[in-house]
C-alpha cells in the first residue's frame, strides 16, 4: 500500500552557485558520508558531474521528505537520508539514526528515481507500507 509520494525539481544552476559560494561546506551539509565519498570521486573526474550529483541528491532528499510527510524537520535531516547506488546502479534510500528507527517503526520501504537534463535535476519517491508478516504456524 502506498504511504506517500514526493517529487522535486531542482535547478542545477542554483546548486552550482551554492557550491561556488560555499565550496565543499555546502556538499558536506547536504550529503551523508557515503554520498560524500561518491561526490569526491565524480567531482575529481568531472566537476560538472559533481554538481549534478549534488543536485540529484538535493532533489531526492526533498522528494523523500515530502513522501514521508515531515518536510525537513526532525527526525528528517539532510545527512540522515542518503541516496546511494545498489550493486545494479539503481538509486536506493539509506537511512541513519533516528530517521531510520522512525521509518522502520512504520514498516515502510522507499523507492527513488532520479534524472537530470540540462539545467534541471528531478527526483521522484514512492514510500510503501510493507505487508504484514504472517503469524507463525504452531505445530500440533
Summed up, the helix count is 5
Mean pLDDT: 95
Stretches where pLDDT is under 50 for at least 5 consecutive residues are none
Helix content: 40-55%
Largest sheet: 3 strands, antiparallel
What is the H/E string?
Answer: EHHHHEEHEE
- Estimated share of beta-strand residues: 25-35%
Identify the overall geometry: elongated
Q: CATH class, please?
A: Alpha Beta
How many individual domains?
A: 1
Q: Which architecture does the CATH hierarchy give at level 2?
A: Alpha-Beta Complex
The total of beta strands comes to 5
- The rounded distance between the terminal residues' Cα atoms is 34 Å
Give, in spatial order, the strands making up the sheet with the most strands.
1-5-4
For CATH, the homologous superfamily is named as 4'-phosphopantetheinyl transferase domain
Radius of gyration, in angstroms, nearest whole number:
17 Å
Structural class category: alpha+beta
CATH topology type: Ribosomal Protein L22, Chain A
Subcellular location: Cytoplasm
Organism: Tepidimonas alkaliphilus
GO cellular component, one term: cytoplasm
Keywords: Cytoplasm, Fatty acid biosynthesis, Fatty acid metabolism, Lipid biosynthesis, Lipid metabolism, Magnesium, Metal-binding, Transferase
Which characteristics define this entry?
140 residues, alpha+beta, Ribosomal Protein L22, Chain A, three-stranded antiparallel β-sheet, two-stranded antiparallel sheet, 44% helix, elongated, magnesium ion binding, ACPS
Amino acid at each position: 500500500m502506498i504511504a506517500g509520494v514526493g517529487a522535486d525539481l531542482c535547478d542545477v544552476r542554483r546548486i552550482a552557485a551554492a557550491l561556488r559560494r560555499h565550496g565543499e561546506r555546502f556538499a558536506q551539509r547536504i550529503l551523508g558520508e557515503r554520498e560524500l565519498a561518491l561526490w569526491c570521486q565524480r567531482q575529481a573526474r568531472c566537476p560538472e558531474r559533481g554538481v549534478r550529483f549534488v543536485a540529484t541528491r538535493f532533489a531526492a532528499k526533498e522528494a523523500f521528505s515530502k513522501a514521508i510527510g515531515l518536510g525537513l524537520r526532525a527526525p528528517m535531516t539532510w545527512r540522515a537520508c542518503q541516496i546511494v547506488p545498489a550493486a545494479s546502479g539503481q538509486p536506493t534510500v539509506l537511512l541513519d539514526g533516528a530517521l531510520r528507527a522512525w521509518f522502520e517503526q512504520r514498516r515502510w520501504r522507499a523507492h527513488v528515481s532520479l534524472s537530470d537534463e540540462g539545467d534541471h535535476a528531478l527526483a521522484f519517491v514512492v514510500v510503501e507500507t510493507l505487508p504484514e508478516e504472517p503469524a507463525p504456524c504452531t505445530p500440533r
